[in-house]
Amino acid sequence: MIALALAAVGLVQPPVAGSQVTARRGFVMQTATAVAASAFVAVSPSRAGYVTNLGFGDAMPGKGDVDKDVLGSSGVQADLTKLAKYAALAKELAAKFAAEPQSDIKPIVASFNRAELRTALNSVGTVFSEDFQKQSDRLVRNVIQDLSELDSLVSLKEGTTRSPKKITSIARFTSKLDKDLTEFLSYVK
Highest taxon of the source (predicted)? Predict the structure, then answer.
């Protein structure tokens, strides 16, 4: 095995003579060269934009490329009202948990209708330009993920208390849910 490896690099003569060895040696040398070359080539992910631009880029709340006709439609306005209701519910959830970390907040989390919320977020997202809409989709995913995490964390068995680690996790996701919904709505107003 070692003899074959040394033969491939060219340090010793191969045990088998002929064109078969030359072909193998050429293949091994090309593979080694390719591996070595790829180790020295630095790929910069920042050129793709996902390292330097994780949010809406240079967009400012209220200054986005919003289609006023779509925004004024009755369907989008109804969905904006739903989103405002869910944003207020997220603030209530965060405040209640901050005031008493051992409180039962499962009913508040359960009152978020994820299907309705996702539909409303997607509907309101149609008011943005295509480029801006790609970025708003990140917030939609974050809101749904925040709710999924909270749903799995908030259960509290009778007679038990939440651990400090669980309290920290729930606090993080309640504030994140509030922040994400508020941020999404800030780009529409």
Answer: Eukaryota
